[in-house]
Amino acid sequence: MCFRRAWPSSAACLVLACASANPAPLSSRVESAPSAPPPAAVDAGVADAAEVYLDAAQGIGDAGPLRWLGASATGSWVAVCQPAPGLESDAGARWQRTVVLANGSALRVSEVAAADPRGRFLVALREGRFELIDAEQGTQVLLAADVDARRVAGNFVSHRSFAFDGVGRRLAYLIRRAGKTRVIIRTLASGSELLGPPLDLEPLRLGFVGASPETLVLYGVAQDTNGDGKRSLPAALSRDPGECQAADRFVASAPIAGDAVQPHLVNEVTAVANPAPGFVLRFGADQILRDERDRLLRRVGSSESVLADEDCGARILAANRKQKALLVACYKTPGRAPLRLLGSQQSIELGADLAFAGDDLLSQLDTDLFAVHPGKSAALVDLGQGVMRALGDDRLVLSVRGRFALVRHGSRLLGVSVPASPAAQVAERVLVEGLANVADVVLGERHLVVDGHVVDRATGRVSGRVRPGALSVDVHGRVLVAAEVTDAGPQGPLRYESPH
To answer: Which residues contact 351 (CB under 8 A, 6 or more apart)?
Structure first.
């Protein structure tokens, strides 16, 4: 089973690309310099902006072989790779990366480093400089000239120096000046930038963690903890963006020996990064921490309680902020990691497990339901109610949104509604009969495409079908399809198609 989804997402394909269109002239790029701190009130216009997206009649990329790399959730940009005409070598054609914007312009880029989850903005390396691209307005603004361009070496690794918040209002990025790291926080609506002071650490990555509000966290090495006389990151860095393939699935390169990485919380008024030993995330006024013994703790004010001991080595899979519940995997257990549901007053062994790598997954922090597949069956962990609901054998959960799941059972697609009361029964109904290609699944922000059927993830409404070869589906339910799909892969040009 291959799931595809548009960037940005934790299990997906992303951006980069090619085409024969000429890049916009350098004179169209606007230089931006850090300025005074932005006002406390943040303009909500970015998050509420009218959506602008690629026209269905517009071809994306050239005819011929094509690697689709990613698309905005709103359909405002698409990224592809294609062979560059006239640049063949003994090893074959060179592939180039191109981002196509809503206004039809095609920007040749060397790398796409980050994308706004709301679908409007992205950061790309173009003509030797990192730019902030507004895909709806079709504009590009140069970011600071001394951006820390080094990324974790290897393919499929997101760029360590850039982070958009979850609501499309802020971009944080790292610069390297006089051998010291500094953080810049940019307000996207106004374009103002806050430049922080030099930081005495080696940064590994930057990210917004949690929700309402999010916390900006800089993970880095501040001390020589292995005693080799220097501060070393546990990963190799490189300026090479890697092969022309998807880049937002995080498949890290092989770890190397290095010093301990500690989180630092970035103050969004001063852009100062303060050490926060053990910080994992915030639950309102509560903090979730991990101590040096690998215990998971909850801190409320000055008091702490142990949520999971060191024998478990709990790593977070999902959370429900309203109930202050955490779904964790005990990755230290030999074999597959057993799952536990941790609440403020109890710890529940769920009787399910999964293969797990050992990192916290902090992208699902407002989760009601989480799909697991014990043995040959399927189940939904109900974080809000503290129970696990069995769905039956030979079933596969394709999508969960709110308290509704889309489940494949043989050649049927089922819609499963899970009531908020733990005593009430799960209700299911057949949405589609006779699925022919059950392995062809595309997951979007609001829609799922399975065997060409376009289905609303929250309600189960089937809006119609599209032809084979779906690559992505936007929030409007439009599906990005290739001109043709051959044994060699999709062939350009791509186009958006509405279901019928």
So the answer is: 374, 388
**Bridge-based pairing state of the strands 215-221 and 237-238:** unpaired
Residues of 271-299 as b/e, b for ≥16 C-beta within 10 angstroms?
A: bebeebebbbbbbeeebbbbeeebbbbbb
| Cα gap 184→271, rounded to integer Å | 7
Beta bridge partners of 472: 480
Report the sign of the C-alpha dihedral through residues 146, 148, 149, 150, in that order. Answer: positive
**Ramachandran assignment for 335, one of left (phi > 0), alpha (psi -120 to 50 degrees), beta (any other):** left
pLDDT for residue 371 is more than 80: yes
CB 98 within 8 A of CB 82: yes
- DSSP per-residue codes, 80-137: EEEEPTT--BTTBPPEEEEEEETTS-EEEESEEEEE-TTSSEEEEEETTEEEEEETTT
Torsions phi, psi for 28 (to 5 deg) = -85, -5
373-403 pLDDT per residue, tens: 887 889 999 998 888 999 999 999 999 999 9
Hunting for tokens 């989760």 — which residue is that?
Answer: 367
Residues paired with residue 405 on neighbouring β-strands, in sequence order: 400, 416
Name residues whose C-beta falls within 8 Å of residue 122's C-beta, 6 or more positions apart in sequence: 15, 72, 77, 99, 112, 114, 115, 116, 132, 133, 135
Strands 470-473 and 462-465: unpaired
Q: What does the pLDDT look like over 166-222, one tens digit per residue?
A: 888 999 999 999 989 999 999 999 999 999 999 989 999 999 988 667 899 999 998
Q: Determine how many CB atoms are found less than 10 A away from the CB of residue 315.
A: 22
What is this structure's pTM? Answer: 0.83
